[in-house]
Amino acid sequence: MEREIIIKKRDAVATRASILAAAHQRFLRESYDGVGLRDIAGDAKVDVALISRYFGGKEGLFREVLADETRPRLFRDAQDIADLPAFLAQIVVEDEGDDRQQRMEMFIIMLRSASSPRAGQIIRDLVQLDVLGPLTELIGGEQGELRANMLLAILTGVGVLRTIMMVDGFSGDAAEVAECADRFRGLFEAALTC
Predict the structure, then answer these.
(1) Which strand (E) or helix (H) includes residue 5?
(2) Rounded to 5°, angle at Cα 103 from 34 and 76
(3) What is the DSSP letter of 141?
(4) How far is residue 152's CA from residue 107's CA, in Å, rounded to a whole number?
(5) Residue 73 covered by a domain
(6) How many domains in the chain?
(7) Does residue 62 share a domain with residue 89?
(8) Could you list the residue range(s) of the whole structural domain that residue 186 is in?
(9) What is the SS3 string spanning 12-81?
(10) 188/154 Cα distance (integer angstroms)
(11) φ, ψ for residue 31 (rounded to 5)?
(12) For the segment 137-163, what is each residue's pLDDT rounded down to a tens digit?
């Protein structure tokens, strides 16, 4: 009996992962409104009812696809406001390989689906929860939310240049990377003080 339960759990984990992978690929190619649950279920080779069982439906599945489990607390970890510009600059200059590819795909998924009222709300909720809320709380003060938005605009702009447009003028030697990190630190400091 115990062996049977373990096998079912392994199947559930594999099935859930298969659904997520299929949904990720569908949302990467098509907008939220253009993707059907039957399409995802077909790609994952599962019954469509399993999507509702594991994710509660299309909205829950979309939310799960966008959730970044590799860095779930990046902006929620306690930081000192004085260290924030250097912390953000380090994120920019250390953006490499698989991490960059994953963020590029997430950005494309968000862009494709942002015009959908449901998907747009999910995207806004996740950005608020994972980035803007924690940054606003850390920055504090009257202009905390505005400054957090400015920081996000800088990070997003740099991310688009590096991941989507493949413009990357600071991936050279250690001295060049350090110089870029210092310049980005100054840019983030300016965003926090204006």
Answers:
(1) helix 2-29
(2) 110
(3) S
(4) 13
(5) no
(6) 2
(7) no
(8) 81-193
(9) HHHHHHHHHHHHHHHHHHCCHHHCCHHHHHHHHCCCCHHHHHHHCCHHHHHHHHHCCCCCCCCCCCCCCH
(10) 8
(11) -75, 165
(12) 899 888 899 999 999 888 888 777 766
User: Six-digit token pair at 91?
Assistant: 């994120």
| Per-residue pLDDT band at 26 (split at 50, 70, 90) | very high
Q: How do residues 37-78 score in pLDDT, each as one tens digit?
A: 999 999 999 999 999 999 999 999 999 999 866 555 666 665
Q: Which two tokens stand for residue 98?
A: 């698989």
Q: What is the pLDDT of residues 74-124, one digit of tens each?
A: 666 657 888 889 888 888 777 665 566 777 788 889 889 999 999 999 999
The one-letter amino acid at 89: A
**Residue 36 structure tokens:** 């059907």
Residue type, 9: K
Q: Which two tokens stand for residue 42?
A: 């077909």
Confidence (pLDDT) at 3: 54
For residue 28, with 0-12 CB atoms within 10 Å meaning exposed, 13-18 middle and 19 or more buried, which class applies? middle
C-alpha–C-alpha distance, residues 34 and 70, integer Å: 27
